[in-house]
Amino acid sequence: MKIAIYGKGGIGKSTIASNLSYSLSKKGYRVVQIGCDPKSDSTRPLLKGRHQRTVTYGQTYGDLPAPTSAGKTFAGWFTEQSGGTQVKADTQVMFVDTQTLYAHWN
Description:
This protein is 17% helix and 10% strand. The chain has a 3-stranded antiparallel sheet with strand order 2-1-3, with no helix packed on it. It has helices spanning 13-26, 44-47; strands at residues 74-78, 86-87, 102-105. The protein has 2 helices and 3 strands.
């Protein structure tokens, strides 16, 4: 399932996105929320005060999370759901628009 929330500023998109992500995760769904606002409005409540890193065009991605899943081995982050290019900590950011990275598993 993929859900995108968009619209003009100040209408509650960030609040809705955060509440929806939280509620779905509590129901057992695995949720990845990606917020593109430099102010971190949609993801700040979910991080509970932890720092959020922003990637910058021309720089490297830096440390990436390593998720776990019972009975599976994490194979890395990729640019496509199936196949695609692997993205590592030293990979240079070459996107200026929204980008989704997909976890691949063995």
